Amino acid sequence: xxxxxxxxxxxxxxxxxxxxxxxxxxxxxxxxxxxxxxxxxxxxxxxxxxxxxxxxxxxxxxxxxxxxxxxxxxxxxxxxxxxxxxxxxxxxxxxxxxxxxxxxxxxxxxxxxxxxxxxxxxxxxxxxxxxxxxxxxxxxxxxxxxxxxxxxxxxxxxxxxxxxxxxxxxxxxxxxxxxxxxxxxxxxxxxxxxxxxxxxxxxxxxxxxxxxxxxxxxx
Length: 219
What we know:
The protein is α/β, with parallel strands linked by helices. The chain has one domain (9-212): Vaccinia Virus protein VP39 (Rossmann fold), CATH 3.40.50. It has helices spanning 31-39, 57-65, 78-90, 108-111, 136-142, 149-159, 175-184, and strands spanning 9-12, 19-22, 47-51, 70-75, 97-101, 116-121, 160-171, 187-195, 201-208, 215-218. Strand 1 and strand 2 (19-22) form a beta hairpin. It starts with 8 loop residues before the first strand and ends with a strand.
């Protein structure tokens, strides 16, 4: 039985012979996801939890780009979670990558609390407004319909161990909100990197329980 369904394609991630299954008629990952995978770090033999994982590109790349031992992909949409699971199988990563098809809110009750070395998240960028001309799946990926920025940071605080790292990519125009929420939940922003493009995005590195002190990198 083929792991690739009708209308799906197999994309070469151009790193360590990794491939990702995607459906070009539905939501596909962007360069922001790759930038996040390149930006994040994980301690040797650590665990990465990738929230809003979609088809799994960030987590799968991060496993091979860091010293992580295990990656947990958390995705609410069943079709995307299934696609991620099949990509894991295609790349023979079943011993290292677990896919959890679940709402993000309170997912710590399913996978554990205070254990993650690293959180990565490429979340919906847009606040929940009236969505036009988009399928439900794409709208959920792009808009805060099922999860908000505060939900993500609140859950990350529960999942991270003390000293664990949080990595996010988002629109730079929401940076003040991001920094405020990180402080609210005891995750201190430590590094920012701005990405140029049609819309300026920002990569954020933060750490649970860290002291104040922020570094800014530029492309």
